Batch of 2 targets.
Target 1
Amino acid sequence: MTDTALRAAQASGPVPVHPLEPAGAAEYLAGRDILAAAGLLAGPVRFAYYGLEEPAKDEVLGPAGETAGGPAGETAAGPDRETEGETAAGPDRETEGETAAGPGRETAAGPDRETEGETAAGPGRETAGGPPDRRLRAFLINVATGESCDVVVSLTRRQVVSRRVLDPRADGQVPIMDRDFATAEEVVRADPAWRAAMARRGLDDVTRVRACPLTAGSFGFPGEDGRRLVRVLAFVQDDEHGYAWAHPVDGVAAYVDLVERRVIELVDEFVLPVPQESGDYDDPAVRGPHRTTLRPIEITQPEGPSFTLDGHLLRWEGWSMRVGFDAREGLTLHQISVGDSGRERPVIYRASIPEMVVPYGDPKFRYWQTYFDSGEYLVGKWANSLELGCDCLGEIAYLDATVTDDGGEPRTIRNAICIHEEDFGILWKHTDIFNGSAQSRRQRRLVVSFFATIGNYDYGFYWYFYLDGTIECEIKLTGALFTAAHPGGNHPHSTEVAPGLGAPAHQHLFSARLDMDVDGQANAVEEIDVAGLPAGPGNPYGNALVQQITRLRTESQAARRADGSRGRTWRVISTERANRFGHPASYTLYPEAAPVLLADPGSPVAARAGFAAQHLWVTRYDPAQRYPAGDFVNQHPGGAGLPEFIRGDRDIDGTDIVLWHTFGPTHFPRLEDWPVMPVARCGFTLKPTGFFDRNPTLDVPPPQHC
Ligand SMILES: [Cu+2]
C-alpha cells in the first residue's frame, strides 16, 4: 500500500483493532502526522523508537480482570472479552487515566513534562464504552541539538497525550539509530588523527576500514557528561565479500559525539598487527568443498498444520495467545492460556525478552564494551526476514512485522515471525510388565520465533508450547564473535581463535519479563529447594527427601539467585484456584542457574545492568514498569529498572505480579566458535505443577502407524 492509500484508509475512520494488535503502517503515519501538527517534528527530528503504547491490563481485561469469581474457564481471557464495552470503563480507569503515561514515568516527569490528555479529553484513556484509547510512543531526537523527548500520542483522539524532555545527564540517551552507523563511519574517516592512527598501522586507504559504533556506557568521564556518544572500533574489509570481524584494528578507539559529528577523543594505546587469516566461511578456500553425504530430510504435514492463525490470534491444541511485535522487544506474546477439558485457563498475560546485556570481560582498553541489545540497539528493528526451507522447515506460517525507520516511516519486515509445529520425540511411553500393554505417544510443540542480527551476533528467540502444558523459552546464539587482536600466549580474558585474532570473554544476560496470570491475576511465588534430611528421629536411615518451601512475600525478599545444588525452582501459585486436592494451581519456573552478572558489584556496568545481578525478581504489576534496565538505557548513569522498581518493597502475595528472570551463558569462546559460531542455547522452562489434576495428555492418540 502506498502512503497515500494508507492515509486514506486511516482517514476513513478508526479501524476496530484488538487493543494488543501490533501497530500498523497506517497508524505510524497517522501518529507522525499528529506529532507534526503539534510542532514536534520541526527541524531535523528523528525517531529513535516508535511503537505501540499498550493499554494497561485493566483496560484490556476490564476492571475485574480475571480475579472475578466463577470457574476458571469462564473468566479466562478469550478473544471476545476485550471488545466488551461494559468492561472497558470502570472506577479503576479513572485513577489510571491521571497517570496516562504510567506511574513510573509520571514520577520521572520534571517541569518539562506536558500532560495534555487530562485537559483535552477528560481523564484516562477511556473512549465512552469503546475499546481503549489507541496510543503510540515515540522517542524523538533533534539530531542537530541533541534534544530528546519521550512522547505519547493518542490516535483515537488525534492528539499528543504527554511529552517529556529528557535530561541526558540523569536520563541517558535515546537508543542508537540506523543513521548513527553511517555517521560514525563518516566522522572517523574524516578525522585527521584517526586517519593518522590508521596510517601508523599500514592502513592508508581508510575506505577499507569499517567503523563499528558501539554504545558508550557511562563512566563519569570529564567532557562526556550529557553528550550523545559512541565509541568506535575499526575492522578491515578488503572487498565487498571481506569478513571484517576477522581483521580487527586493535588499540585505537575514537570517541565520537554524534550531535557535534566529531571525534572528541582518540584513544591510541598500542599497536598489534591486524590479523590476516581469512574468516570468510563462504569461501571454498576457507571451508573446503561442501560435504556430499547428507541426504534430504523433508518435513511434510499432508493435512496441514494443527494450529490456526486468525490475524494475530494463534490457537493450537488448547493453547491460545496473541502474537505481537515491537521494535524494541521483538516478539511479544499476550494472553497465553492453556486448554483444560475445553476450558481456556490463563497462564501468562504477557511474555517477552525486553532486555539483554552483553558485558565484555577484558579490563584493558576495551573495558567499556557492554551492549544492551534491546534498550540501546532495539533488537526488534533488526529482525531478519526468514526464508522457508532455510530458516524454518515444514508447514510454516509467517507474520510480517512493521517497524519504522529513523524518519518514522513504516518498514515491513517480511516473514519476521515464524510459527510452526514440530515433532519432539516421545511424549510418554510405558511397557507394563504385568498387563503387557505397550504404549507410546509422540510429543509435539508449537514454535513461535524470530531471529535478529545485532552487529556481529545473531540471536534467535524461540517460544515453545507443548502438549503437556509446558512452556519453554530458548535463545539461540550464533553469528560472529566480537574480535580483537591477540598478543599470543595465554591470555586470561581472550581466546586466540585464529593467528593473532582474539575473542574476548563476555556474558550474554537476557531478562525475561513474565506477567503471570496463573488462573487469574491473584498469584504468589514460592521458592522451592530440595534437600535431604540428616538422620535422626523420624529419619533413622537418613534417606528422607523434602522440599523446603519459602513464600516470597515482598519485592525485596523476591530478588533471588538460583542454586543448582539445591535444585531451586520458583513456583507461581494461584491464590484463588486449587486442584482436586485443594493445593494451589501452579506453574513452576525452572532456571538454568548459570552465573548472573560477574562484573564487580561496584562497577559502572553493574550499576547499569542491575537487573542482571539476580536470577529472579518479582514485582507487583505496574504498566509503566516494562524494561528491566529502565526506559532509557543508552548512557544511563545506572540504578534504573528493577532495583528501582522494588524500592517500594511492595507486597507480592496474592496480587497481580510480574516475574523477571535473568539467564544466559558466560562465554569463553572456543576455537570451534570461529569463524561463525554453531548455535549455543540458553533459556528456561515453565511447567504446570498441580495445575492439572493429572497428566493432561492421556487423550493424545497413538501415532497412526504404531
Ligand atoms: Cu558470546
Note: Confidence is low (pLDDT under 50) at residues 1-14, 66-123.
Target 2
Amino acid sequence: MLTASIVASLSLAVPLGISKPAWPKEIEPARSEPKPSKCDRSQFRVVLDVGHTIDAPGAISARNVPEYDFNLRLAKYLERSLIEDGFAKTVLLVTGGRARPSLFKRVARVNGLSANLLVSIHHDSVPDSLMESWEFEGKESHFSDRFRGHSIFVSYDNPHLDRSLLFGRLLGKELKDRGLQYARQYTQPIMGRYQRELVDPGAGVYRYDKLIVLKGTQMPAVLFEAGSIINREEELEMNSAERLDLINASLRAAVKMFCNLSSPTLRARTGNSATR
Ligand SMILES: [Zn+2]
C-alpha cells in the first residue's frame, strides 16, 4: 500500500474527474514497428529506487515478509537485466533510515545522478480496514484476497509529466501484453483516502500527485507497485520465477522504447513538450 509516509500530505477529498492525458502520438508506431536502437543505452541512466528501508520496510505480506525484501529482490533483478541490455549506467538506489526522511534523502540523491528515468519499485497491500486475519506458521497474520494486480502511478507535479506518462503507459501496455491485469480498486470509494484517478484505463496508470519521490525528482518518474503481497495467492506468484520474468521482460521492453523515444533526434523531430 501507498502508506501515508510516502506522500507529502494527504487529502480525503480526491478529485476524480478524468483529465485528458497528453500522450505523444509516437507511442503506437514505436510499439508496432521495431527499429534499430536510436538511443545510446550506455549513456541513458535508469534509477531503480528500492521502495522503503530496512528500518521502515513498508507493508507486511500475508506471510509476514516485509515489502522492502520484495522491492529489493525485484529491483536487483531488474538492474542486472538492464545492464545486460546495455544500460550500463543503471543505478540501484537503496536508502536507509526512517520512512519520511528517507524520501527526501532519495530525492536528493536521484537529482544528483543525471538520471533519464526513475522507477520506484514497490509491492502493494490494502487499507487496514480491509484486512482479514488468518494463522500462518502458528502466528496470527493478516491478508486480503479481495484485490490483486500491479499498478503504476505518476505525479502531475513532476516537471516531466508527459514523459512520465509516456513511460507509465509503455510499461502498462507491456504488462498487459503479457497477460497481467492491473489493480482496478484504486478508483473505488472503498479505498477512501487512497482512491485515485485512473488516467489510462488501458494501461493501468493512476494519478498520485503528492508522492514525494515523484514530485520532487527532476526527471521522468513513475512509482510501480509490482503486485499485491497481501493477497495470499499473488504473494506466492510474486515469489515465482515466472512472474519475475514477466515483469522483467515488460520493464526491459518499456525502457528500450522509452529510450528510443527520448533520443535527441526523435525529440527534435516530434517536438518535446515535457514540462508543465
Ligand atoms: Zn511501498
Note: Residues 51-52, 58-59, 67, 122 surround zinc ion (CB under 6 Å).
